[in-house]
UniProtKB/TrEMBL annotation:
Residues 142-340 form the Smf/DprA SLOG domain. This is DNA-processing protein DprA. Belongs to the DprA/Smf family. Residues 1-46 are annotated as: Disordered. SUPFAM superfamilies: MCP/YpsA-like. It comes from the Bacteria. GO terms for biological process: DNA-mediated transformation. Pfam families: DNA_processg_A. InterPro entries: DprA, DrpA_SLOG. Residues 1-10, 34-43 have a biased composition (Polar residues).
Length: 415
């Protein structure tokens, strides 16, 4: 949906602090760029602060270094808004952090001096520059006082104070399903991704992924091909795509969906920012589907982050001998549920399972020779009219085949 200038009062019971919250306002474009030739820094600061109320203060607090996210949340709990934090005295800040830690007087002298220095030298210059870039490049901002971000932020104590996005967001009631996986995906992984995403789009879900090579890009592309809505979560500012070769794909996503990041315009994709991106993706999704992943991969980090947040995580099982599925197979022992086909795994959002598949004879034919992995079946029977996983699941439920501990499908009664 397009973000609106809603004046409704957010439900503060869902937040980690109490007290009145400022009302979010959509950032309007400036009539002219900010520069010293048009106005003084003081005039610009006052004009921006007046125009955008809390927005510039959220950016300032989010970008402040030398203070942890946990400490920022403690300050918000006591002072209710980033503007109040900005205008608070250094002594007030120190007192709040000492009290909230439950150890009055426990803040070391060096820490007290650090806090004092931070607040004595605070200014809005960096926040102004970020806000100006947002306006110039049609970048929107979500903060904890925004009704769209409020429940997401409240549910995760490590969620960033600010998210930036280009494009438009789906209505809050629309389920968001993450689809992620290996950058070097297999034919099996590609087949599962296309089938799952096509059905997700058909049933009105928003599909989210990380814009990376392989499964991520395929999830976005398949969504667009089926005229669906997709979100891309990136590990850098909105000045570029990551990877750069996906610039056109990123623009296509923003045309109908959204590109979302916790990082301000101009921030580059450093290693730790991939981790931050993964956590935001995990928080935003209602369900996360991991198609293929090695044991040590970004997809595994995202999946484990989602599990810690209590999200529903589905992993596509595969042969124990397939290294690109070593992580997804491991997830099945860590709390993820096995994904066998889209109708079974996403509940009431999907149509009922067909009673039979005309492709069963082809599958039985190849399994008559030897038990096979799912990938091997995909390679040997490439022209199935329905997805391989649909066919295999239906045959398993009817007792014709079984998936055994060797990672292969066996005909019932066979060795």
């Amino acid at each position: 949906m397009n973000v609106t200038n809603s004046q409704s009062v957010p439900d503060t019971r869902r937040l980690s602090w109490q007290g009145p919250l400022p009302t979010y306002r959509e950032v309007p474009p400036l009539r002219e760029p900010i520069s010293s030739t048009h106005s003084s820094p003081v005039t610009s600061r006052r004009r921006l602060a007046t125009m955008h109320d809390q927005t510039i203060y959220w950016i300032w607090l989010n970008e402040m270094r030398g203070i942890t996210l946990r400490e920022k949340r403690k300050l918000l709990s006591s002072l209710s808004s980033p503007q109040n934090i900005y205008h608070a005295s250094p002594s007030t800040i120190i007192d709040i952090l000492e009290t909230k830690q439950g150890r009055a007087g426990s803040v070391a002298e060096s820490k007290r001096e650090s806090y004092g220095s931070l607040w004595s030298s605070r200014n809005l210059a960096n926040a102004e520059a970020i806000l100006a870039n947002n306006e110039q490049h049609s970048i929107h901002l979500l903060s904890p006082d925004h009704q769209r971000y409020q429940p997401i932020y409240a549910a995760d104590t490590k969620a960033p104070l600010v998210l930036y996005y280009k494009g438009r967001l789906s209505p809050p009631e629309t389920p968001v399903i993450g689809v992620i996986g290996s950058r070097a995906s297999t034919s099996y992984g590609n087949l599962v991704t296309k089938a799952a995403v096509a059905t997700l789009v058909e049933k009105g879900n928003t599909v989210a992924s990380g814009l990376s090579f392989g499964i991520d890009a395929l999830a976005h592309q398949t969504t667009l091909e089926n005229h669906g809505i997709t979100y891309a979560f990136i590990p850098c500012g909105l000045h570029k795509a990551q990877p750069a070769s996906h610039t056109e794909l990123m623009e296509q996503i923003a045309d109908t969906g959204a590109v979302i990041t916790p990082y301000a315009y101009g921030k580059e994709a450093l290693p730790f920012r991939f981790i931050g991106r993964n956590d935001v993706l995990a928080t935003w999704c209602d369900t996360l589907l991991v198609v293929e992943a090695r044991k040590r991969s970004g997809s595994m980090h995202t999946a484990r982050s989602a599990l810690k947040k209590g999200k529903r995580v589905l992993a596509v099982p595969n042969s124990l001998l397939e290294p690109k599925s070593s992580g997804t197979n491991l997830l099945l022992t860590e709390g993820a549920k096995a994904y066998y086909d889209d109708q079974l795994q996403f509940g009431g959002c999907y149509s009922s399972i067909p009673t039979s598949h005309p492709d069963e004879e082809d599958v039985i034919g190849v399994l008559n020779e030897n038990p096979l992995t799912t990938s091997e079946i995909v390679d040997m029977v490439p022209d199935l009219s329905l997805s391989v996983m649909e066919c295999l699941t239906d045959m398993e439920l009817s007792g014709k085949i079984v998936f055994r501990s060797d990672g292969r499908w066996h005909l019932v009664g066979g060795l």
